[in-house]
Amino acid sequence: MSNSLLSLIGNTPLVKSRVLNTNPNVSVYFKMEGHNPGGSVKDRAAYNMIKTGYDNGDFTANDKLIEATSGNTGIALAMIAGVYGLDIELVMPENSTKERVQTMRAYGAKVTLTSSDVGIEGARDYAESKVANEGYIMMNQFGNPNNWKAHYNTTGPEIWNDTHGEITHFVSAMGTTGTIMGTSTYLKEKNSDIQIVGVQPSDNASIPGIRKWPEEYLPKIFDAKKVDRIMEVNEVEAKEMARKLAKEEGIFSGMSSGGAATVALRLAQEIEKGTIVSIVCDRGDRYLSSSLFD
Predict the structure, then answer these.
(1) Known catalytic residue: 42?
(2) Using 50, 70 and 90 to split pLDDT, how confident is the model at 2?
(3) 256 included as an active-site residue
(4) 170 and 249 inside one domain
(5) Is 57 annotated as a binding residue?
(6) Are 51 and 134 found together in one domain?
(7) Cα–Cα distances in Å, from 248 out to 18, 53, 142?
(8) Known binder of ligand: residue 175?
(9) Is the domain of 195 the same as that of 271?
(10) CATH number of the domain to which 60 belongs
(11) How many CB atoms lie under 10 A from the CB of residue 185?
(12) Which of 75, 86, 165, 186 has the most CB within a 10 Å radius?
């Protein structure tokens, strides 16, 4: 029994691949972040950014908060801001799935949709202008150290403990890069030989939640030294793997999770032995209005 919804964030399960991994000397585990109360890995960062900022007096219930998001961070921020009684506006490209928009509004957030032609970069520019001209306060997931510290304090230790320190490779999609930065920092402190593998889309691939940022939009929290290898995945691979995860492993997730799993399973064929952990960052039900599972 829990007295607080927010206490349910984290401690998500690891599930071993039973079917898709065919190398008997390698274990591939999927970390099921859809089990967080807001349905994604972003609950961790959103909670740490809001709690730390609120506790430090960086903002109060009288302030207007704003954040640009591709979806999961927005849902997490909407949920947690609601619990704290905070006013938040979330800015997204207009081609975001309606499930995401409706979920944020259900939690009480104001949702502003910007042109899909300018993507998440345009949403970020809109939020920056509201901060500069209208006194809004931004959570700034792309530059806020409390994003990656959430994973240093929770995701990394959970993976280390649940694999009994046997993890050899960690695989994560890279969006804001908070997950991979914080988890890498923790795991490398435990064993510098652990390989940290970031997943990016190949050129011109569109995979929600994974980005190859233009230099001027590169998240300020990103430190390339904390990633040993970057592997690319295309849109077709990410979609097909999301479908395979659901059909063959019973893991219902989105495209970015499919992209990460593609890389994790590719790695499993490259190495002789090891333990690979791949982040399944959310649940597939927030993609049902898209073509992902058609």
Answers:
(1) yes
(2) low
(3) yes
(4) yes
(5) no
(6) yes
(7) 9, 42, 35
(8) yes
(9) yes
(10) 3.40.50.1100
(11) 17
(12) 75
User: Could you tell me if 14 and 75 lie in one domain?
Assistant: no
Query: Is residue 179 annotated as involved in ligand binding?
Result: yes
Can you give the pLDDT at residue 239?
A: 93
Angle at which helices 72-84 and 98-106 cross, to 10°? 10
pLDDT higher than 60, residue 59:
yes
* Whether the predicted model's global pTM rises above the 0.90 cut: yes
Which residue, among 92, 96, 77, has the nearest Cα to 139 in the 3D structure? 77
Which residue is it, tokens 């495209």? Answer: 255
- Give residue 274's pLDDT: 98
- Host domain of residue 197: 5-40+154-287
pLDDT computed for residue 1 by the predictor: 56
Spot the catalytic one: 31, 42, 188, 239. 42
> What integer pLDDT is reported at residue 228 of this predicted model?
98
Boundary residue ending a domain (138, 165, 184): 138
pLDDT-above-70 percentage for the chain: 99
Instruction: Kindly state the tokens that stand for 155.
Output: 């995701």
CB 121 within 8 A of CB 154: no
Q: How many domains does the chain have?
A: 2
Q: Indicate the average pLDDT of the chain.
A: 94
Q: Are both 73 and 20 inside the same structural domain?
A: no
Closest CA to 272 of 26, 75, 101, 103: 26
